[in-house]
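Journal club prep, notes for RB
We'll compare a predicted complex against what the paper describes. Inputs for the S-adenosylmethionine case:
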Amino acid sequence: MELTMSALQPVFFHGTARGPHRDALLRRMLQTGEVHPSLHYLSGRQASLWMRVHEVHAPLFQDHAFVGIFERVAKRLSGMGVFGGVVALGPGGGEKEVLMLEAVDRSGVGVEFVAIDASAELALMSVERADQVGGGRTMAVVGDLEELGGILESVGEYEGRGARVFTAFGITPNLLPEGLLSSIRLGMRDGDILAISANLAREGVDEEVPGMRDVREVVLAQYDNEETRQWLRRLLVEEGLEVDYGDVRFEVGQIEGNCAVIADACLVSRRAGLPERLKLFFSLRFTARTFPELLRRHGFNVFSAEVTTCGHEAVWLCSRAD
Ligand SMILES: C[S@@+](CC[C@H](N)C(=O)[O-])C[C@H]1O[C@@H](n2cnc3c(N)ncnc32)[C@H](O)[C@@H]1O
């Protein structure tokens, strides 16, 4: 995508994108060893390194079947005559979100594309992509999706009428579902639709944790590679911890009953006050059975599903169940 380097770009900063919030996340990291997912996307360099991981390892760029499910969802949305904008949650580069924007009727809508992301760079990149699609107003919002309720309240002041399509693509591996789904549901108005994807593991027989074998045999390699190591280590470089922690290691484990690829790094220096182990990253894997169950449990009415033939990614369309 060509960047409009010379133009000034407006960006809205929520309180959770400001220094004090981010300092608190870093302090928590050093006290508990838990790294908040957003900390891997904050600087321009981290965003570029993530884009590289995305381009080299995301199945979207290797196999057209992955784009196909998003195209089919967009087609379904256009057939529904949804009149409103798109609120993109964690859009990254915005490739999938823009397909949805093309599918909604935007005549007379106020702001038609809102990108909410922890990374200013990625929020802007997705807005620039959306600007290439239509002539309507777009809005880049930088903030932490863990405070989505408050962010959506502020965004509401700028939006126009119509039902909106919320997109939550590629973020369910990194954000624990409980908080994410409850805040999306609370932020949705009557008529709004949620298009949400999950990276899936294929469920085997007699597995204690559904999908665990597939994560070990297929998914792990998408993370255990040089590009991902470089991206995750960038946080250590920026925080002056590069020499304190050894190699990034990847393993398969479980988080809240779901299987996950988990990355950590162990302390190798004698510097006092640093946690022995930094839990750098996790990527959750649901199955084609467990994820829609989770959506229903969180008060969504699931009315459409598109799953890749390989069974590794799906997108669901939902409305609020009440
Ligand atoms: C794996 S990428 C997915 C990007 C894109 N939607 C896709 O499917 O390719 C995760 C995105 O969520 C954003 N993100 C991660 N944690 C976040 C948080 N706590 N708050 C806001 N954005 C977050 C990242 O900056 C990144 O853009």
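Talking point for the session: The first helix runs from residue 19 to 32.
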